[in-house]
Design brief:
This protein has 15 helices and nine strands. It has 433 residues and is α+β, with helices and mostly antiparallel strands. It has two domains: 20-123, Sandwich (Immunoglobulin-like), CATH 2.60.40; 132-413.
Length: 433
Amino acid sequence: MRRLLVVALLALALPASASAHATLTRTEPHFGTRVERSPKLVRLYFDQTVDVLPNAIQVFDAKGKLVSGRALASSDGRKVDTPVSRLPRGGYTVRWRALSADGHVVSGVYTFGVRAAAPPASEAFGAGGPTTSEHLVRWLYFLALALLAGGLGFRLLIVRGPLGEAAQRRFYQLVGLGVVGALEVGIVAFALRAEDALQLPFVNFLYGDLSPFAKTRFGYAFVAMTLGYALVAALVFLAWLTDRERLLWPAFLLALGFASGLSLSGHSAADAGSSWVSELADWLHLSAAALWVGGLVQLAFVIWPLEPGLRRRAFLRFSRLATVLIVVLLGAGTYLSILRLPHLSDLWAQGYGRVLLVKLGLVSLALAWGAAHHFLVRPKLERGAPLFAGLPRSLAGESAVGMAILLVAAVLVDSKPPPRPVQAPLNAASQQR
């Protein structure tokens, strides 16, 4: 109780203290915009007086060359200007920092373009590529989606009936872990991506301006998915609290639906050659993987140890569903691989292709494992043969392989596919003839 009181007091105190620092209200040029003429200066507007630090505003071109001069504050201290040299066509990064009245250093980054599209804030000059921490967080996010969507799908599509008290409790524990993970890990993923773009020490990052980053495709997806999974969490909690399992249906559909945010903000939506078909294929690929891995976890750790009477029926039903999921997984994955790798040699010549090869190897292992269950174990169980003593360990092993596939998929999502070949214009080709 004492800990809860401390947390509550901190929650009340922190917003009040954070609201005192200066906030950037407007910029010239505006962030994320394209201007047709080179600006003579970059100007920042704040809602209160700020002290100008050395190099308060720095403007860089795409190659990292500094193109700005010394920053100066206005007489009231609410505007900060820096002159810039004549800027050629291209994208530019503005990095700024100032000292607000409460003593906190406020800072941020944004981009604009001169006669060209502004680069995304996540690709601002100085931002690095995905780190090992981001790979790990992405993997945890995939696992959370599998526990959530796969667990709900298994309960609604496979079991479809009452469970014992112990099995019901473990089911809600696993699904609850998934929905909490989708919320909390999602926030960590957004913070890591923003911190990489801002390139700030953690203390200064707490007072960083995240608005340019939040307005990227990834930022919009993060906001929508966070709100969506908060609603899913509420539905799952109400279903557990009131024993009304029909509430799990909207939770299941929303969990799958909001997973599309990853497809709408990733390679399938942003890279060359992307379309609604690639976005749909990516969502189907992710959804099938989540249902498969999450279903295996439920079968291995809920039904098998706690519901002996449901083992045979649950295994046979899940085996049929897994066949459909694997077909979807392979079909969508093959399409996306062909789309992202223009040449077969890219599989071993490009970093993205080499990671994909590792994933294909693990998928092949999982397919062989699942095929053994489907073609060897399932027919015997349908004929009434006794359950194999080693089947629980085999199911747990297949679950572990599925989780390893999600780990490689996390690295693959953060990797950059090779550029697509540029086709020569038709008129140029005709002139060469």
